[in-house]
């Protein structure tokens, strides 16, 4: 009887250890792109906070592989790593089954959270998960126009009937242009620092459609949109960027470490057009120091394969991080784009010095 018990006990322990090991290995797997192997981030310095931004909407829509949502698994598995970010921020977060799974798992290690809606008519959120306590949150409406003439012009372009909520739902509309200015103040060992998640509007599809209908040429429309991205001073994204920067200086506390990061919907440079910098990007560069990351953040190889409309889309770097304008005392370390598969954007990660 004792011998039988020992045999059963041995196989029970063997089964538990082996299958627990398999489960743990599977749970820690990161789904990467570009044949990346043995990916990991360096250790976080004692005076640093690691912050990651990831626009994950298309991950929610497309990233199913053999029943696995790659974005969900990457986020949960990353949180288990020793080099996991201290703060994870997700753009275009929607309240579906996959994101509920993210929340259920992350809350164990990231107990301080906020979910901030883009605007009242927008069902998407910016989700903020932190290991550090949140001291206060400031939110304000972030508009995109300077006058009622701007509204009238863009309502026509967006096919939103002026003065009403009647929309042609086959096309994007200007109600999604409104965003929220966000400042989140946190503490690390009694030292305050601030994070400004940002996701600026994207008017280029509306502009392209408007020009194509006006001039009966899709090729001309693309050229006109490109010119607007680089040179235009009055389009909605330039106005919204200016308003964000003004609000930042209205709320910034002198000496407070900070990072502005997210999806700016504006590339750092158009390498195909004489390396031209869009005017809206230069607005930020005049006021802040960018985190220099290599490569493009959009679109990913995953979305090119998942959604044919992205197949021939050029590589662009539209997810950025900025901090204090002081090139002699850099506040960023280990700034990089992470090769995670599953969404149309790659995540961006920076280590912010807080001391």
Topology record:
Layout: H1 2-27, E1 48-55, H2 57-62, E2 64-65, E3 68-69, H3 70-79, E4 87-93, H4 97-106, E5 112-117, E6 125-130, E7 134-142, H5 148-158, E8 179-188, E9 191-199, H6 204-215, H7 218-231, H8 236-251, E10 258-263, H9 279-287, E11 289-290, H10 301-306, E12 319-323, E13 332-337, E14 348-353
Parallel strand pairs: 1-4, 9-10
Antiparallel strand pairs: 1-14, 2-3, 4-6, 5-6, 7-8, 8-9, 10-12, 11-12, 13-14
Helix pairs in contact: 3-4, 6-7, 8-9
Q: What would your notes on this structure say?
A:
With 355 residues, this protein is of the alpha+beta class. The chain has a single domain (31-353), classed as Deoxyribonuclease I, Chain A. The protein is 34% helix and 24% strand. The protein has ten helices and 14 strands. The chain has a six-stranded mixed beta sheet. Strands 7-8-9-10-12-11 form a six-stranded mixed beta sheet, with helices on one face. A hairpin with a 7-residue loop joins strand 5 and strand 6 (125-130). Helix 3 runs parallel beside helix 4 (97-106) and helix 6 crosses helix 7 (218-231). The chain is globular and about 55 Å long.
Main beta-sheet annotation:
6 strands, mixed
Query: Gyration radius, to the nearest Å?
Result: 23 Å
In total, how many beta strands?
14
Shape category: globular
Spell the H/E element sequence. Answer: HEHEEHEHEEEHEEHHHEHEHEEE
Helix/strand class: alpha+beta
Write down the domain tally: 1
- Spans where pLDDT lies below 50 across 5 or more residues: 1-26, 160-172
The proportion of strand residues reads 15-25%
What fold name stands as the CATH topology?
Deoxyribonuclease I, Chain A
User: What is the CATH architecture assignment?
Assistant: 4-Layer Sandwich
What is the topology, as strand order, of the major beta sheet?
5-6-4-1-14-13
Which percent range fits the helix content? 25-40%
Average residue pLDDT = 79
Distance between the termini: 65 Å
CATH superfamily membership: Endonuclease/exonuclease/phosphatase
> How many individual helices?
10
CATH class: Alpha Beta
């Amino acid at each position: 009887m004792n011998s039988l018990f020992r045999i059963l006990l041995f196989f029970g322990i063997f089964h538990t250890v082996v299958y627990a090991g398999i489960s743990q290995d599977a749970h820690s797997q990161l789904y990467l792109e570009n044949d990346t192997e043995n990916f990991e981030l360096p250790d976080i310095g004692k005076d640093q906070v690691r912050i990651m931004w990831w626009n994950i909407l298309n991950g929610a829509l497309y990233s199913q592989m053999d029943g696995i949502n790659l974005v969900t698994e990457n986020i949960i598995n990353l949180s288990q790593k020793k080099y996991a970010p201290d703060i994870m921020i997700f753009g275009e977060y929607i309240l579906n089954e996959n994101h509920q799974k993210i929340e259920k798992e992350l809350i164990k290690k990231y107990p301080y959270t906020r979910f901030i809606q883009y605007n009242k008519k927008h069902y998407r959120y910016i989700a903020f998960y932190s290991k550090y306590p949140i001291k206060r949150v400031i939110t304000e409406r972030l508009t995109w126009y300077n006058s009622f003439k701007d509204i009238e012009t863009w309502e026509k372009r967006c096919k939103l009937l002026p003065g009403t909520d009647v929309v042609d739902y086959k096309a994007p509309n200007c109600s999604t242009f409104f965003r929220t200015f966000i400042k989140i103040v946190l503490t690390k060992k009694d030292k305050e620092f601030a994070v400004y998640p940002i996701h600026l509007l994207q008017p280029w599809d509306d502009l392209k459609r408007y020009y194509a209908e006006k001039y009966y040429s899709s090729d001309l429309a693309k050229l006109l949109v490109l010119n607007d991205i680089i040179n235009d001073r009055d389009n909605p994204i330039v106005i919204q960027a200016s308003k964000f920067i003004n609000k930042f200086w209205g709320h910034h506390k002198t000496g407070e470490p900070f990072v502005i990061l997210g999806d700016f919907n504006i590339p750092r440079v158009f390498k195909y057009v004489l390396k031209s910098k869009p005017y809206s990007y230069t607005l930020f560069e005049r006021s802040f120091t960018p985190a220099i990351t290599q490569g493009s953040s959009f679109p990913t190889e995953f979305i090119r394969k998942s959604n044919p409309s992205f197949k021939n889309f050029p590589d662009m770097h539209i997810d950025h991080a900025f901090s204090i304008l002081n090139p002699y005392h850099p506040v960023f370390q280990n700034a990089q784009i992470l090769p995670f598969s599953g969404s149309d954007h790659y995540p961006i990660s920076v280590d912010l010095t807080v001391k």
